Amino acid sequence: MTAEKPAPDKTAPEKTAVTGTTSAQTAAERAAGVPKATVAERTGARTEEAAGVISGARERIDALDDRIIGLVQERMAVSAVIQQARIESGGRRVNLSREMEVLAHYSDALGKPGTALAMTLLELCRGRI
Q1: In the predicted structure, residue 63 carries a pLDDT above the cut 80
Q2: Separation between Cα atoms, residue 119 and residue 39, nearest integer Å
Q3: Distance between CA atoms of residues 28 and 31, nearest Å
Q4: Whole-number Cα distances in Å, 99 to 58, 94, 103, 128
Q5: How large is the angle between the packed helices 96-110 and 112-125, nearest 10 degrees?
Q6: pTM recorded for the entire structure
Q7: Which has the least CB within 10 A, 5, 34, 50, 71?
Q8: What is the pLDDT of residues 18-61, one digit of tens each?
Q9: Is-contact 106 57, C-beta < 8 A?
Q10: 3-class secondary structure, 60
Q11: CA distances from 33 to 37, 39, 40, 45, 48 (A)
């Protein structure tokens, strides 16, 4: 008879190679009692390792999204200052040549989707005063 290897300790979290996050669940998910199968189903992953990578990367995306939203809000506030100064000096609220510069900048950096993103930013920043 050959000696059987002991089963791996399922209670110890495993670190993933890519993100350094533990197994397929975040600490919050484990604390909330979310079953691992649910995490795998939610991520669309077929393995626990892939679910762990996806969960960690999604946490990073969520943090990036929060930063992006904060930057957009800051851009809106700066734009309002510019518009107010322009109006108070007798100018128009919107400077179309400047908007074209912004559109070109985003298009050069990100292509056609960049133009759409710039249009959305310009729309968010217009008329807030």
Answers
A1: yes
A2: 36
A3: 5
A4: 33, 8, 6, 16
A5: 140
A6: 0.67
A7: 5
A8: 444 444 556 677 777 766 556 667 888 888 889 889 999 999 99
A9: no
A10: helix
A11: 12, 11, 14, 19, 16
User: Which two structure tokens, joined as six digits, stand for 47?
Assistant: 């393995």
Count how many residues are written for the chain.
Answer: 129
Kindly provide the b/e burial profile for residues 14-25, where b requires at least 16 CB atoms within 10 angstroms of the residue's own CB: eebeebebbbbb
* Cβ 128 vs Cβ 76: under 8 Å: yes
Q: What single-letter DSSP state applies at residue 5?
A: P
Amino acid at 73: Q
Please list the alpha-helical segments (H only) found in the chain: 27-31, 36-43, 48-88, 96-110, 112-125
Tell me the Ramachandran region of residue 111: left when phi exceeds 0, alpha when psi lies from -120 to 50, beta otherwise: left
